[in-house]
Amino acid sequence: MHLDTIDATILTHLQKEGRLTNAELAERVGLSPSACHRRVRALEESGVIQSYVALLDADVLGYGLTVVVSVTLENQRRETMERFENAVSDVGAIMDCFLMTGADDYLLRLRVKDAHDYERVHREQLSNLPGVTRLVSNIAMRKVFVRTELPVQGR
Amino acid sequence: MHLDTIDATILTHLQKEGRLTNAELAERVGLSPSACHRRVRALEESGVIQSYVALLDADVLGYGLTVVVSVTLENQRRETMERFENAVSDVGAIMDCFLMTGADDYLLRLRVKDAHDYERVHREQLSNLPGVTRLVSNIAMRKVFVRTELPVQGR
DNA sequence: GTTGAAACGCCTTATAC
DNA sequence: GTATAAGGCGTTTCAAC
Known about the structure:
alpha+beta; 35% helix; homodimer; four-stranded antiparallel sheet; Alpha-Beta Plaits; DNA-binding; Arc Repressor Mutant, subunit A
């Protein structure tokens, strides 16, 4: 993937303001609207720009609690892992899931309303996940920050 | 925060397609364009909709490796924590940072290019963070999934 | 307080240079 | 990369429920 400085500037702006008009974006990066539009479309088609989304405030919506869960499976057979991975994506509270190196098999990050809500999710959904031997929950006391932008550098 | 079913539907759509035109959105939720527009603006002003952003593909950009780092501070004095938190937000590779309950003090999630890049970030940035006694790095072998949408329910 | 309709101005998009 | 033209959209204001 070859990005020049102008591409990087475009991405930096769109990562902060995804609804920038092409005219405004063109002015900020010092390009004509049509030239800017062509670059943006190329970035979209190459997959660098995956999608445009609205970010909601989890705290305002009442999903103020983050829980990180370490998962140990009963074994590391491919079938066990596949069954687990298929089931895990159906739990809406899980924001992300990684297959880890080290002591634990998977690491989940969940968004829930409060401790009581987490107890419910744990009981109704997590404890039913197939192939799981052990779940270790770590509750976040406070979100220091969460970033969605990636650092982009062009040349 | 009172959301009815239509608000929830609007949010669900905008979380997937943040650049939907108001006309298109209105049609999908079964409202007139002006009514829909008013609701969206209210959701923006109440802070439920935080921002609109472009999501970039970390893998395409070469940031394919996720590392989760557990941090232990030398003590839990407020001053120590504040100095750490201020410094941690300057490290661009850190995607999020939580103050945790349990054995570890902070949990960081990083995006880097590869193991070599992580070694550099660790040496140049993480090991210089103030007040840190211990850093335990856990490398993700594979991203199973990452979600940005929150579950929204109206009534 | 909420909805539907119309007019204006601006943006997006495509074509040509 | 720039310039131009056509179609579409958001915005605003109005009246009606």
